[in-house]
């Protein structure tokens, strides 16, 4: 393990602990960064046995030194707090709690969704502002500003650094899961083949793993992890040699990551046994069916979509369910469902219509629907996938 | 302890019936009582509509006066609570109750300093 990987693995954990000790994320980050700067000089020959604990201790000592030099009321208060902390935070319990607190603070609904994402990647993922900027294709200054502003709001508005109580937990946990899911998707749907974007998905998987480890009794957390693993497992097969998108039915199943699939299946079984299905568990279960055996059992997929739609009655879920309806009951019934949906600007609606129309032999209408989908698609890879489908159709007699 | 302003954003272009007003007064009064019982209450006040408002502006050592609210927008400050709680989560929990009681958006804004600290 080199210093870079220690930084990536330990940065968030150390900042979380120092935030508890100092009561301020900004001060905590400064102290941890100073400690890593010391580490660069001292770890030349050999890494300490427990690099994370070393960083926390060093950061804590640095913070005490700095607070001694300052004489503001806040500094004296913080110093008293630090000196009264018993022992080193090596015990596992408190450190785990620190991380959980940090996750809930970063994903607090009083912060904008973009700020939640940036803070989560920074403080939990250990990514720095330039890395986040490259992953989201936005200017570094924008990311930097967003993070600074979010930290300022946390401090000034008094966003607490704690795990929400039982009454608040379901809503607040949903916000955490959404952030991780969005980070994963940002890395997954951008099929430009850019490695940094792939990193974003892996980062989301890593954070979902950590969260599942911290909250083993929350079935939706396990469900999210299972979902991410089962989608990630298919990554090697979802692009052809020329970088083109390969739909699920045409994917080379032998290229799927068997290890991730086995782990995902196990997690799905484990969380569904609890009998409290939620949207992430159901989506994970759907993906478990897709990755089970030589072909998808669509009857099972449809019954899971029925449950998901009952739970989350949104037009996007209804659209995905229609795809399963087409496989089980035929394209005509599915088309009737799709034609009832209102999803302005969403390219997958006309794309799905186009596919159903093509299967019904209504070629001219299908071509028109593909044209609409191509206009609405925002991603080059998806656009060229749709264009290929459209062309194949217009060439057929 | 931190102090927060819970400001009621009132759409003045949509007048409400007397019946509605009475119901909301009763509901918000109940929330105020709860705040008092919990030791979170500092102040509460309802404002007359912005037609009664006057703005005084400083200008070169003197002032000028204009009729009407500072910003001519549809939403105006309709009233507010000042509460004293531990953190934003507690303030948001009160804002939840206030929003449901008066049926209007509530802006939650922390005070710069807690007097006396």
UniProtKB/TrEMBL annotation, chain A:
Identification of the protein by name: RNA polymerase sigma-70 factor (ECF subfamily)
InterPro entries recorded for this chain?
DUF6596, RNA_pol_sigma-70_dom, RNA_pol_sigma70_r2, RNA_pol_sigma70_r4_t2, RNA_pol_sigma_r2, RNA_pol_sigma_r3/r4-like, WH-like_DNA-bd_sf
**UniProt-listed NCBIfam families:** sigma70-ECF (TIGR02937)
What family is reported?
Belongs to the sigma-70 factor family. ECF subfamily.
- Domain named RNA polymerase sigma factor 70 region 4 type is located at 102-154
Q: Does the keyword Transcription regulation apply?
A: yes
Transcription among keywords: yes
- Give the GO molecular function terms: DNA binding; sigma factor activity
The UniProt keywords, alphabetically, are: Sigma factor, Transcription, Transcription regulation
**Which positions fall inside the DUF6596 domain?**
172-271
Residues in domain RNA polymerase sigma-70 region?
7-71
GO terms in the biological process aspect are: DNA-templated transcription initiation
Automatic annotation (TrEMBL), chain B:
- Domain YCII-related, chain residue ranges per copy: 12-101
Gene3D superfamilies the record matches: Dimeric alpha+beta barrel (3.30.70.1060)
Give the stretches traversing the membrane.
none
Q: Pfam families of this UniProt entry?
A: YCII (PF03795)
The Swiss-Prot or TrEMBL record describes its family as follows: Belongs to the YciI family.
Q: What is this protein called?
A: YCII-related domain-containing protein
| Annotated source species | Actinophytocola algeriensis
């Amino acid at each position: 393990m080199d210093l870079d990987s220690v930084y990536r693995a330990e940065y968030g954990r150390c900042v979380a602990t120092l935030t508890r000790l100092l009561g301020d994320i900004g001060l905590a980050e400064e102290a941890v960064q100073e400690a890593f700067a010391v580490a660069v000089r001292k770890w030349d020959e050999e890494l300490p046995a427990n690099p994370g604990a070393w960083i926390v201790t060093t950061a804590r000592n640095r913070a005490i030194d700095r607070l001694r030099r300052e004489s503001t009321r806040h500094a004296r208060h913080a110093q008293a707090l630090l000196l009264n902390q018993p022992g080193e935070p090596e015990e596992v319990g408190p450190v785990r709690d620190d991380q959980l607190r940090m996750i809930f603070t970063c994903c607090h609904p009083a912060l904008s969704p973009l700020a939640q994402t940036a803070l989560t990647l920074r403080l939990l993922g250990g990514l720095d502002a330039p890395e986040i900027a490259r992953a989201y294709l936005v200017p570094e200054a924008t990311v930097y500003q967003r993070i600074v502003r979010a930290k300022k709001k946390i401090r000034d508005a008094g966003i607490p650094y704690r795990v929400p109580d039982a009454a608040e937990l379901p809503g607040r946990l949903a916000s955490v899961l959404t952030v991780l899911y969005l980070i994963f998707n940002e890395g997954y749907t951008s099929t430009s083949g850019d490695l940094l974007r792939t990193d974003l998905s892996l980062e989301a998987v890593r954070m979902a793993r950590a969260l599942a480890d911290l909250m083993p009794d929350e079935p939706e957390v396990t469900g999210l992890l299972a979902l991410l693993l089962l989608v990630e497992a298919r990554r090697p097969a979802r692009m052809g040699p020329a970088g083109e998108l390969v739909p699920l039915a045409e994917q080379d199943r032998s290229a799927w990551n068997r290890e991730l699939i086995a782990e995902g299946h196990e997690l799905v079984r484990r969380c569904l046994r609890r009998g409290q299905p939620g949207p992430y568990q159901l989506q994970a279960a759907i993906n478990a069916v897709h990755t089970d055996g030589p072909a998808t059992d669509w009857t099972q997929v449809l019954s899971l979509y029925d449950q998901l739609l009952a739970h989350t009655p949104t037009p996007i879920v209804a659209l995905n369910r229609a795809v399963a309806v087409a496989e089980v009951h035929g394209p005509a019934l599915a088309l009737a469902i799709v034609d009832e949906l209102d999803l302005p600007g969403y390219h997958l609606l006309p794309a799905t219509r186009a596919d159903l129309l093509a299967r019904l032999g209504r070629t001219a209408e299908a071509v028109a629907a593909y044209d609409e989908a191509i206009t609405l698609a925002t991603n080059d890879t998806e656009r060229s996938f749709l264009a290929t489908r459209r062309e194949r159709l217009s060439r057929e007699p | 302890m931190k102090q927060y302003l819970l400001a009621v954003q009132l759409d003045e272009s949509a007048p409400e019936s007397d019946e509605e007003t009475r119901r909301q007064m009763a509901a918000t009064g109940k929330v105020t009582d709860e705040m008092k019982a919990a030791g979170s209450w500092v102040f509460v006040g309802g404002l007359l509509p912005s037609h009664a408002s006057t703005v005084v502006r400083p200008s070169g050592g003197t002032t000028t006066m204009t009729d009407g609210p500072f910003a001519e927008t549809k939403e105006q400050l309709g009233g507010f609570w000042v509460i004293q709680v531990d953190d934003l989560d507690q303030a948001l929990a009160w804002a939840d109750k206030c929003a449901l009681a008066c049926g209007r958006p509530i802006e939650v804004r922390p005070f710069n300093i807690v007097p006396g600290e």
